[in-house]
Each structure stands twice: as structure tokens, then as C-alpha cells.
Design a protein that fits this description.
With 77 residues, this protein is mainly alpha-helical. The chain has three helices and no strands. It has one domain.
Length: 77
Amino acid sequence: MTLSVMVLKTNYMMEAMRQRAIEDTFEKFKTATRHYYETCYGGDEVTKLTHELENLGVDPEILIDTDLNIRDEVFGL
């Protein structure tokens, strides 16, 4: 195995791990956001998950749109 092949495989594995982290964190974000709008508790958890997703490279527009969609669902708009 050459060094370049090892670098490519490592980069692939790192990206796969990042994508899994995004998927898991995004699901937690949606659950926490829904809980927050239903109970008005847990805003700190939503904020923490938002920052985690931003650090993982998720576009803030996606987070805002998801938040607004959940809010509309909860409040029946």
C-alpha cells in the first residue's frame, strides 16, 4: 500500500464518520427541538446540538428551515 492510498482511505473513513455524526446529531436536534416547542424546556440542549452541527459543517440554513418546519408542525400552522 502506498502512502497516497492510505491517505485516501483515511480521508474516506473520516468523511464517513463525519456523515454518521451529522445524521445522529441531526436526529437528536429534531427531537430536542420538538420537545422544546412542546414543553418550553430544553432550549440549552437545542443550542448545544445546533453548535455541534455547525461545527460538523452543516449549513445553518438547513437548521433554520428544520426548526421552522418543526415549529409549524407543533403549533399547527
